[in-house]
Amino acid sequence: MGRPLGVGKLPPDLLARLLRYTSRSPSITIGAGPGEDAAVVSGSPTIVLTTDPITFTGERLGTYAVAVNANDIVAMGGRPVYLTTTVLLSPGATEDDAERTFSEIADACRKYGLLWVGGHTEVTPVVSRTVICGQAVGFLSGSPLSTAGARPGDEVCMTKWAGLEGSTTIARERRAECRETLGDDGLRRVLEWLGEPGISIIAEGRALEGLALTSGHDPTEGGIAMGIHEICQASRVGVVIREEAIPVKEETRRLCARFAMDPLGLLSSGVFLFTAPRDVAAEACRRARERGIPAEVIGTIQEQVIGELLEKNGRRIPLVASHQDEIVKLQQ
Predict the structure, then answer these.
(1) Radius of gyration (Cα) for the chain, nearest Å?
(2) Integer angstrom CA distances of residue 295 from 142, 238, 285, 286
(3) 12-140: what CATH class?
(4) pLDDT attached to residue 10
(5) Using CA atoms, how far apart are residues 80 and 73, in angstroms rounded to an integer?
(6) How far apart are CA 1 and CA 124, in angstroms?
(7) pLDDT per residue over 202-236, tens digit each?
């Protein structure tokens, strides 16, 4: 029967083993692999493909489904264009529930510039609440941006702040407790993050277009820490991350303290994590800030023998990462 699986991402060794079942062909430039956000298929133009389900929340599903799938295309250096969806409604769902879900998807597609071209919808007892699985298709004009391209000496950069998506999820799922922790104004601010700055990195993709980045990633489950580990593992390098350089909002810190979570391991859709040579990294951060997108250099890629380290209070300690996101603690 094998070992039981926990909630969250699959263990890396199991994932690597399962992905050997996926297709290989000369037309597939980048196929399925641990840490890769999407696949790249050669052609004219080159096609970028991805899929992602929304399972951690029952609210604003349309916004999440569109943004998370579009982000994977952007993280590979592509421009998201088309979206299909599989919408699974739980028994007892009403016509209004279905219409609300479809309206949210349509609104998000208009906002992020995607064309929603269909999919599949059904009511099934397999789910206890609505689940959306999106499949996005985009196009690539230059070389694909893989997680495997980071090189020693590159700077590690991130936009926005750690735990962005996870904070909004906590605020919606545990509203009363969050109000106790943050007050009415603090709760309102966190809830508004889903709309502004939002959990899309399409604006980052446009701002950084043409720059010679070496790797890119959309840190979702496992947060910033897992995203950094996945880049390092795919690129076979190490890293030193400066804790004080990682942007974390005070509201996120307080929510994580309330629910015994680590902000660095919390869902971070809306953050673009990337590496680049020092001068390119500086230009990338400058361009992002010009468009009102917070961006910071948070560390430096090292030789693999150093491993993944967090520089904290003058000491270097291992950068802890888990394939299980901190948000699962809400369900325990």
Answers:
(1) 19
(2) 23, 22, 5, 8
(3) alpha beta
(4) 63
(5) 6
(6) 27
(7) 999 999 999 999 999 999 899 999 999 999 999 99
Written as one letter, the residue type at 139 is F
What are the contacts of 188-196 at 24+ separation with CB within 8 A? 189/251, 190/251, 190/252, 190/255, 193/164, 193/167, 193/168, 193/270, 194/60, 194/63, 194/168
Phi/psi of residue 312, each to 5°? -135, 120
Question: Cα separations (Å) of 26 from 29, 31, 42?
Answer: 7, 10, 8
The type of residue at 179 is: R
Find out whether 244 and 315 touch, Cβ atoms under 8 Å. Answer: no
- pLDDT winner (highest mean) among 1-15, 142-156, 303-317: 142-156
Beta bridge partners of 132: 54, 87
- What helix, strand, coil percent values describe the chain, rounded to 5? 40, 25, 35
Average of per-residue pLDDT across 156-170: 96
Q: What is the CATH number of domain 147-331?
A: 3.90.650.10
Helices (H), 113-174: 164-173
Q: What is the pLDDT of residue 280?
A: 98
Domain assignments of the chain as residue spans, ordered by start: 12-140, 147-331
The CA distance from 21 to 237, in Å, is 27
Taking a C-beta distance cutoff of 8 angstroms, is the pair 51, 136 a contact? yes
